[in-house]
Task: structure prediction
Amino acid sequence: MSDAPIEAESRKAALKKLIAARRPQMIAATARMKEQRRALKAIKEHLAGAELTVPEIAAATGLPVSEVLWYVATLKKYGEILEGTKAGAYFRYRLGQVVAAEAEPGSDE
Amino acid sequence: MGVQQNLKFDALVLGGGIAGLEAALNLAEQDFSVAVVEKDASIGGKMIRLSKVFPTLDCSSCITTPKMAAAAHHPKVTLLTYCELQSLERRGDELVALITQKPRYVDLEKCIGCRQCEYQCPVLVPDAEQGGLAARKAIYIPFSNAIPQKALIDPENCILCGRCEKVCPTQAVDFFQKVEDFTLTAATAVIATGFEMMPLEDKVQYGQGQIPDVITALQMERLLAPHGPYNRVLRPYDGKEPDSVAFIQCAGSRDQSMGVPYCSRVCCMYAIKQAMLLSGSLPLADLTVYYLDIRAFGKGYEQFFQNAQAMGVNFVKGKVAYVEPGEGGAVRLRYESQEAEGGVQVVEHDLVVLSLGLLPGWTPGASCALSTGADNFIKTVKPKLAPALTELSGVFVAGAASGPKDIVDSIVEAGAAAMEACRYLAARGFKAAG
Result:
């Protein structure tokens, strides 16, 4: 669907042009992504070695409870956290094995 | 962005939902070549997004996927997904459609649907396929049984970081794709553009989508589906298993003040179905349906309603006038009771499901000489004896494009539209299978 196969040398120029054309939405999307990364980092940190419910994660991170659920559902979808035991009417969540290892102190986020 | 090519088929089917696929397969089985033009990135329409269907409680995905696969693999059917119809007009014996192919930024031929790009993408976006209750990535495959099982990039949220491109094993990512227009010529067409749910954002009485625990029926379908956002039914406010769930019927339908005076026909039955499914997944929860009348008109529907009552679903005759946030994520309802107690009642529930009115999925406007009725759905010229006939010769209509209807009626009408299209083709010398 592209106009023509873009050669390696002209690709860089074409990408620059594309970035310039999409700059406003890229700036907004990057800002959202940074906010998401902060939230995800906070959630994963509090889940390291712990099994928590959504309201408990919200209380620990200071994030709105419905926002925490949105992140928890997403992390669960991509296999980064697992559903644990039930606590009353709520479910507890814990980190998946790979993510738990990454969240160990000293590892890069 | 010039017109790149001209495709030619015996028949064009507009819409790749269950009615469109049924019509396309019927035409293809008669050996006619068919193009299915679908606006979404996957075929399957609303039905593939449902949990189960009434009154049989069949798994919706299980019975829709084979139909989708049959269309995808049929040698006489060509699927054109992620395409928008710009115009459809008759030129002599032919119908000429001008269609825009939206860019996926992923090469359809090269993508193998491995999702490695999706796992690497760092940007989260509310996933419309899950009612916004979880996120997808900026590069994504729409859902697990999407056809085609190919990725696409959402340019509004892509930050051009290049991670997807680096990880793609087939070099399918192409940031430089552009919108392309093409023409499609056919002798006949079937319009199967389905429905959309009335938007919630302008409904002050229902919280304008700002109360987390007031959700639409399609969001409840996702909560009930095996691959839903939480894999179980939880309150979107805080992840609690709800103790009481309310269904508000005619939330926007049969209400002149909201612009939808007609009955949306399917809401009573899907609310009953959802209540029955909830009684299975949340056996201790109180389930209440607030209704004006229960319209259980189809085969087996009245028995289905009676089964729900026998299972303990509470039916309260009364019009809900207003919903507002209660304490701790609860939702407060004000309704005018038509039961013995009468008067205005105030109750609280953990989760409220709105049976919103159905609106046309597509209106022709200036793009096509088809006209619409007072309800904005496609006008049919012989609604009793030939309900698939439109004002435009050779153009037929099927499913919810001509008015709200359930899956059974949509399938039946799709068969009728395909038969009308076959007759139209045969009369003009096109040969059906012998």
In short: The domain at 198-358 of chain B is CATH 3.50.50.60 (FAD/NAD(P)-binding domain).
